[in-house]
């Protein structure tokens, strides 16, 4: 008998890290919650990373997900921005790992393909399809909508034989 799996998707960002939680039972998805953890852009980098850590820890504590999925970093033309995003992504992966959750990673194109059917698309298409897939979904920021898309992507991929074999290994 299948069991309901609660998944948190995380869209890392230094200014705002989006999170979205869905429940997956077989092929059905149910929206649970979404939001963003923000950092103070006037604070030091270390303080901002602490703020993201604390915020995500609170979300995990409240929501009690079983699995996590994080979007992989893409490389910007600005090396400094890419490094900062990578550090925020490190926090986004660390928090669920410290909570004992398996953490999957997905490229932006894989998330788009899972949600809109093609590897390239704009944010409006992704947000529209998130609403189609989960009509009760509520998200106030682009980051939260993107995080829900990451959770949806993981819900689809976790059912694959290759994913299950990877988790066993």
Give descriptors for this structure.
169 residues; single chain; 5 strands; alpha/beta
Q: In terms of per-residue confidence, which ranges show pLDDT below 50 for 5 or more consecutive residues? A: none
**Helix proportion range:** 40-55%
Structural class: alpha/beta
Beta-strand percentage range: 15-25%
Helix and strand sequence: EEEHEHEHHHH
Radius of gyration: 15 Å
| Sheet with most strands: strand arrangement | 3-2-1-4-5
Biggest beta-sheet profile: 5 strands, mixed
The number of helices is 6
Q: How far apart lie the N and C ends?
A: 23 Å
Number of strands: 5
Shape: globular
- Whole-number mean pLDDT: 90
Q: Quick gist of this model?
A:
With 169 residues, this protein is α/β, with parallel strands linked by helices.
Structure report:
This protein has helices at residues 45-63, 79-98, 108-116, 123-133, 142-157, 161-168, and strands at residues 5-11, 16-25, 28-38, 67-71, 103-106. The chain is an alpha/beta fold and 169 residues long. The protein has a five-stranded mixed sheet. Strand 4 (67-71), helix 2 (79-98) and strand 5 form a beta-alpha-beta unit. The model has no long low-confidence stretch (mean pLDDT 90).
Give the SSE layout:
Elements lengths: L4 E7 L4 E10 L2 E11 L6 H19 L3 E5 L7 H20 L4 E4 L1 H9 L6 H11 L8 H16 L3 H8 L1
Parallel strand pairs: 1-4, 4-5
Antiparallel strand pairs: 1-2, 2-3
Helix pairs in contact: 1-2, 3-5, 4-5
């Amino acid at each position: 008998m299948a069991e309901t799996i609660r998944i948190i998707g995380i869209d890392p960002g230094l200014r705002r890290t989006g999170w979205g939680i869905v429940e997956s039972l077989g092929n059905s998805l149910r929206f649970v919650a979404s939001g963003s953890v923000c950092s103070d852009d006037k604070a030091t980098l270390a303080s901002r990373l602490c703020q993201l850590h604390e915020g995500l820890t609170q979300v995990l504590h409240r929501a009690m997900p079983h699995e996590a999925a994080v979007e992989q970093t893409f490389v910007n033309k600005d090396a400094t921005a890419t490094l900062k995003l990578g550090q925020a992504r490190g926090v986004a992966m660390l928090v669920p790992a410290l909570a004992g959750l398996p953490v999957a990673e997905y490229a932006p194109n894989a998330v788009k393909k899972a949600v809109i059917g093609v590897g390239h698309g704009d944010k409006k298409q992704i947000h529209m399809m998130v609403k189609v897939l989960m009509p009760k979904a509520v998200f106030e920021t682009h980051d939260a909508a993107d995080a829900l898309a990451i959770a949806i992507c993981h819900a689809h991929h976790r059912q694959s034989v290759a994913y299950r074999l990877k988790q066993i290994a």
